[in-house]
User: What shape does this take?
Amino acid sequence: MTKGSFASYEGNNLETGTTNSWHGEYYRLKSEGDAAVLDRDHIVRIEERSAAGTLQTREVPPLEVIWEGYQAIAAQFLDWLDGGPPPTTLADNLPSTAMLFAAIRVSETGTTIDVQEVARQLIGA
Assistant: This one.
């Protein structure tokens, strides 16, 4: 790595301590006297050792990531897989789809179309 930095990875089931399950890893980034730790609780902690040798730990507030466009769709889907609320479903889009199909029929026939009836036809009711 640059500027004399190095990285190492160690993984085994023989050491004492916590065995990490899939998606429940423990990461520790060390520097001279300090460390950043991410444990299975998904909270980042900074460990700082003073000149006197006292260890102080502080939590880093989580970043709020705002996704847009296709990234938002993928993020909603992944959140749903982890037990979150369901993403937008076909039923959520039914009213606007019925309105679109009704508008197409109106332009073809020049007659009035009941959008609710088109929605019922779409769901097969």
User: Anything to note?
Assistant: The longest helix spans residues 90-109. Residues 2-60 form one domain.
